[in-house]
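[Meeting: bench + compute handoff]

Bench side (C.D.) handed over the final construct sequence. Compute side (W.E.) agreed to return the predicted structure before the next meeting so the bench team could plan truncations. Sequence as handed over:
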Amino acid sequence: MKKIYSSLFNDRNKRADVLLTSMQLVSDSIINEDKYISLLKLIFACDALFEREKDDKRHIIEQLTGNICLLLNNGIEDKKLSKKLEYAYELRSLLVHEGKIELNNYELDDLYSYLLFILKKSVRNLVLSTKYKSSQSMVDFFTMVDNRLTFFKKQIAIILINDLKKLSKPITKDELIFLIKNNLQEEHNYNVQNNEVFQLLFKQVVKKLRSGGILKFNNGYCYLKNEQFDIDQIFCKIS
């Protein structure tokens, strides 16, 4: 922790200020004797680090989940993370608007421990990883995240569509995932080390292609519905 503080104070910029604010909120939450206030401070620390757009709750949870999964690189299961974040934001809303919540100590301690682990690891990666050290602000960091995610989603979409074009029979989603991962590794020399990020992006790609009328599912099998599309237009913005 001393190394992290030292690094931030030696390189003061907008990014460092946000990280220091988040770290202060985490420290305050640890020493606060009121467990509910401690939980609120952790959620505020998540907001400071990862939230970008003031939108509906579903969009915020999706945004936080994607950012955290990518940043932590491995060991975080996106469905569990998404559920924990959604639960935390529901509790925050109740605390802010009603002043109290009914929660047993085990549930509270479990959620607090999980968020604390996420925040500590996220701050550590943001400060010490050479991949993110060049970012002068959190805006720079999120721009880099967006570019990486968009590029990866385009790759997944192109491989998915090309694989479906080659097949003479329907294929299940699990079989399609297997083909895409192999293709990424063999033809693009990209090893899908972070399965959580891949699964998250795959779901977003499928959602985009289905809503765009390009892909359809029937009885668990994938079909290519329309081969005419503009991949850059489809994935010009993270969704």
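W.E. noted at the follow-up: The chain has a mean pLDDT of 76. C.D. will use this when planning the next construct.
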